[in-house]
Amino acid sequence: MDQFLGGAVPLWVDLGYRINRSMFIGAYFQYAFGSTDGLYKATCESLGADCSPSITRLGAEFLYRFSPDASFVPWGGIGLGYESVSFNETLGGMSGSTTASGFEFLNLQLGGDFKVSPSFLLGPYIAFSMASYSSIGGVSGFSSSTHEWLQFGLKGTFDL
Prior knowledge:
It is a single chain. The chain is mainly beta. The chain contains one helix and eight strands; from the N terminus they run E-E-H-E-E-E-E-E-E. It starts with a strand and ends with a strand.
């Protein structure tokens, strides 16, 4: 992936059910705007093409709050899902794209939230995921090597 993507800016949304003050089970959806790098960037620049990769991830997760009633709430999570990366190119008024997709078999999250108000929390997080693509350009049966994502961010939580 390092020959194609230089990084990405993700927007991540969790939706689910809080079993109790500590446990949350739900789904996640993420869309990320990517930047080009390596061979892909060099090819796009040499052709004069406008290239814009994007990443979409969705899956199921379990989150656990270690001190749910404290003013600082540390938490951790685990999940799995599906990932798709699209490489979109535009050149001379024509456009095309190639998509790779596959199973995300590990998604680990760790963070800490500060209680801004009784129903809103805000804090940093780090997430690590591992996935492997099984389809490229609509052709199934492809087996890629495992790749990883490491994310840092700021998470806001509406605790209803």
